[in-house]
Amino acid sequence: MTTSRPFPDCVAHYDPNALPVSAAQEIVRQWAAPRGPAPAERVSLFDALDRVLAEDVISPIDVPAHDNSAMDGYAFAGAKLESAGEVELTVIGTALAGQPYANALGAAQCVRIMTGALIPPGCDTVVPQEFVKREGDAIRFAASALRQGQNRRLAGEDLAKGRPALRAGRIVRASDLGLLASLGIAEVAVRRRLRVAFFSTGDELRSVGETLAPGCVYDSNRYTLYAMLRRLNVEPVDLGIVRDDRASLEIALRRATEVADVVISSGGVSVGDADFTRELMNSLGDVAFWKIAMRPGRPLAFGRLWSGPRPGDGESALFFGLPGNPVAVMATFYFIVREALLAMSGAAREALPVIEAVSTEPLKKRAGRTEFQRGVARRGDDGRFTVVTTGPQGSGVLSSMSEANCFIVLEHERGDIDAGDEVRIVPFAGLI
Ligand code: AMP
Ligand code: MG
């Protein structure tokens, strides 16, 4: 092992043939450093959606820029309220959004004001129109109906000038685009999109459009992977189907490592195929682990590959060798790959949402591995979530993923679950 390819000893404490999921996640976290120097490029707002901010966005202005009214009503000097009983004021003008009332007001005067209009000079309080009785130019209302300063939005209360409005590492959402626009910002610095090459392995695989010979199956993993990669807004590089032999796999891995930051394959890591894949990985790079104590998804290779003639030479890429079974591909992507791709994209870490739910049925579970069953969760009238599995949980049953709306996460140490027991669920939050 050369010094140019540091190999953390994080695996040393565990059996690399059966790592607990939490340990595997920790190793992946350590290996998945952000790629490339930030900032990478400036894009216009419309192109910024789902991109990762490369730097903090500092607010160039106060939002709102001036004190303004939160209600339709009447603006006046709130000191008036100190005299208890009824307040009586004369309406001397109108302030509309975009048409301020700029003159000074006398002691017993007020201005008709609409939501968003600037608070006139000397005023600090707005009485909502439904609180007042109006007769001609006079309004009356009970002083006890409000306090001084009420119904006024303060300048800078949404975003203060000079303060970070959004932080580096933020994945830009719809609300953020609006927020940036509200600051008058037309462009932001975003990180380069991560390039992720992916391919399927298996002599039995056929592409959609081909006829199926007996014993063959259509390649579905490339589609689920493509979709999940698109959801993460990385740049997917589809390398197709690769035959189950060492030479083809080596060509595919080298090519993928040259063009991408991360390489994801599916199939060819379970018993039988495992040996030549593992041997190949060892000759092209470092293997961090090989099997996870997880179901579905037990065979899962993770490491780093190099494109050059020897490990440490040429381009490098992280490698995830996912299992072939379609459900296992999705589960391992969700719980092992996703976070690494986000971290390498420069995104701030955000844990998956976890909800407690009551299992309405007994579940078979073996202690010593984490299981990810497919569930349908529903919120009951009492506000609590219940969850039921989608039925057969074979790791090839892709329809179970389509029917489900969550993973039921059964922790490593846990044994069988009784009906009525609490379990943790992770809703499919937009990725699946
Ligand atoms: P493997 O891990 O290569 O032994 O594959 C395990 C199971 O998943 C086998 O039944 C394969 O036929 C199936 N499989 C592997 N790759 C794919 C794929 N890309 N699409 C659909 N099924 C697959
Ligand atoms: Mg295979």
Report on the architecture of this protein.
With 432 residues, this protein is of the alpha/beta class. The protein has four domains: 7-38 and 193-344, MoaB/Mog-like domain (Molybdenum Cofactor Biosythetic Enzyme, Chain A); 41-60 and 168-190, Molybdopterin biosynthesis moea protein, domain 2 (Alpha-Beta Complex), CATH 3.90.105.10; 68-153, Molybdopterin biosynthesis moea protein, domain 3 (Molybdopterin biosynthesis moeA protein, domain 3, Beta Complex), CATH 2.170.190; 355-427, Beta-clip, CATH 2.40.340. The chain has helices at residues 21-31, 45-48, 174-182, 221-231, 246-259, 274-284, 326-344, 399-403; strands at residues 19-20, 41-44, 57-58, 68-69, 73-76, 86-95, 109-113, 125-128, 133-135, 138-142, 152-153, 164-166, 187-190, 195-201, 205-206, 217-218, 235-242, 262-266, 285-295, 299-306, 316-322, 355-359, 370-379, 385-389, 406-410, 422-427. Magnesium ion binds at residues 201-202, 244, 267-268, 273, 324. Residues 197-343 form the MoaB/Mog domain. InterPro entries: MoaB/Mog-like_dom_sf, MoaB/Mog_dom, MoeA-like, MoeA_C_domain_IV, MoeA_C_domain_IV_sf, MoeA_linker/N, MoeA_linker/N_sf. Its cofactor is Mg(2+). It catalyses: adenylyl-molybdopterin + molybdate = Mo-molybdopterin + AMP + H(+).
| Strand portion | 25-35%
Residue stretches low in confidence (pLDDT < 50, at least 5 long) are 1-7
Task: Record the strand order, biggest sheet.
Answer: 8-5-7-6-10-9
Question: What would CATH call the class of the largest domain?
Answer: Alpha Beta
Mean pLDDT: 92
Question: How many DSSP E strands?
Answer: 26
Going by CATH, the homologous superfamily of the largest domain would be MoaB/Mog-like domain
Structural class by SSE content = alpha/beta
Separation of the first and last Cα atoms: 39 Å
- Number of separate structural domains: 4
Q: Helix coverage percent of residues?
A: 10-25%
Major β-sheet annotation: 6 strands, mixed
Query: CATH fold name of the largest domain, please?
Result: Molybdenum Cofactor Biosythetic Enzyme, Chain A
Function: Catalyzes the insertion of molybdate into adenylated molybdopterin with the concomitant release of AMP.
Pathway: Cofactor biosynthesis; molybdopterin biosynthesis
InterPro entries: MoaB/Mog-like_dom_sf (IPR036425), MoaB/Mog_dom (IPR001453), MoeA-like (IPR038987), MoeA_C_domain_IV (IPR005111), MoeA_C_domain_IV_sf (IPR036688), MoeA_linker/N (IPR005110), MoeA_linker/N_sf (IPR036135)
Organism: Caballeronia humi
